[in-house]
Amino acid sequence: MKKRILAMILASTMVLGLTACGGAASTDTAAAPAATEEAADEAEVADEAEEVEAPAASGEGQVYYLNFKPEADEAWQAIAKSYTDQTGVPVTVVTAASGTYEETLSAEIVKDEAPTLFQVNGPVGLANWADYCYDLNGSSLYNELTSDSFALKDGDAVAGIAYVIESYGLITNTKLLGEAGYTTDDIKSFEDLKKVAEDITARSAELGFSAFTSAGMDGSSDWRFKTHLANLPLYFEYKADGVDSKTEITGSYLDNYKNIWDLYINNATCSPKDLASKTGDDAENEFAEGKSVFFQNGSWEYANLINKGMTDDELAMIPIYVGAGDEANQGLCTGTENYWCVNSEASEEDIQATIDFLTWMVTSAEGTQMLSDTIGVIPFKNAADTTNLFVLNDRAYTAAGKTPVSWNFTTMPSEEWKNGVGSALTAYAAGTGEWDAVVSAFVDEWAAEYALK
Q1: Is 168-334+396-451 assigned to CATH 3.40.190.10?
Q2: Does pTM surpass 0.90?
Q3: CATH architecture under which domain 2-165+336-381 falls
Q4: Which residue has the higher pLDDT, 98 or 312?
Q5: How many degrees, rounded to 5, is the angle at CA 145 between CA 141 and CA 148?
Q6: Could you tell me which residues are beta bridge partners of residue 297?
Q7: Is the per-residue pLDDT at 368 higher than 60?
Q8: By Cβ atoms counted within 10 A, which residue in 8, 251, 265, 438 is the most buried?
Q9: How far apart are CA 357 and CA 340, in angstroms?
Q10: 140 pLDDT tier (thresholds 50, 70, 90)
Q11: For strand 63-67 and strand 91-95, is the pairing parallel, antiparallel, or unpaired?
Q12: How far is CA 409 from CA 123, 124, 224, 336, 338, in A?
């Protein structure tokens, strides 16, 4: 009962959010809640979440997965149906709208038919949901991990299991880059990137394309910049200080953050003033339609771009250079924030059914192929190899001795902090705010949010 009361409180207040990787949600089983920008809209989001259709009870156990990744929804629907057809165990996948995962989970977890499987984004995300995480230590799923480092611990308990290792960077249309007179070998630093981007902008009318896609700050896209791009100044500050987390930051690399943000917004397919309304789909379509050379996104975008008609010979992913560190030896941003958690409040039958389903996902040819091709590298002993070009790009960088940029954004104090940075970035781009407001949102609010913990 105490756990359910806590969840009801969480459902009615703004809670920590996971970083979404993808565009608008879709699901064949239910309508997920619409994204919300304002805290005042939370009640409406929770009400919409009440409409999510949970699976029917089954005496033999069932699985209800509240999926975090909109771009993988179609693949999850197909694999769930295949598993049900083969085993008779009902598997329902519901996908939350981009940017609303925590609100949806808060509303769903208190239902009689709550998700048996959900996600957290690391230690910060786990803080909200530890009471609902079944201890997976010694389970068939846990035993398939290639390393204990992929287990998310809560004391001695295994609260979550990392299920994918992903990379992000600058997805590049190598064909267009060639038409502009360059190759990826010409871009080995921020100064190289700046030179190429500004040259493309100067000749954009002649070339027929821009350097960058729109850096949309709509809720379906802003995570790329308030979280993923913001990881870069955090990474270099942490690395310089020899730490992996801080309750107070100095912002010593925010000038580099400004430089890359300026480069994005001033050499793009749209005016910086239009970014507040630009979406993730806008950016994806601009890139797939040959309107830009560079698109900041991750390995999870590979299937979407291929489905839109792009081919491996016109694609590559290169590092996001910001003029810091040893750029000659910098790789892609590689890590994970995706941890499966099994609901400890579910029935014993449903818990076992969920663990069995996940074990099948990471041991069967069908399951591992789906995860590897759709999402990326999976850290399990029987994983299928991947055909994802961007994952292969990451391997090539690592094999060449380049150092991957670690994912430090899992230490960001809250979704509220991210939203503050995002709002400041948007105002700065529109010309209605100063960069000092971005610095304040980044540094001052970081300390303020951690002080509340």
Answers
A1: yes
A2: no
A3: 3-Layer(aba) Sandwich (3.40)
A4: 312
A5: 115
A6: 169
A7: yes
A8: 438
A9: 12
A10: very high
A11: parallel
A12: 11, 10, 11, 10, 12
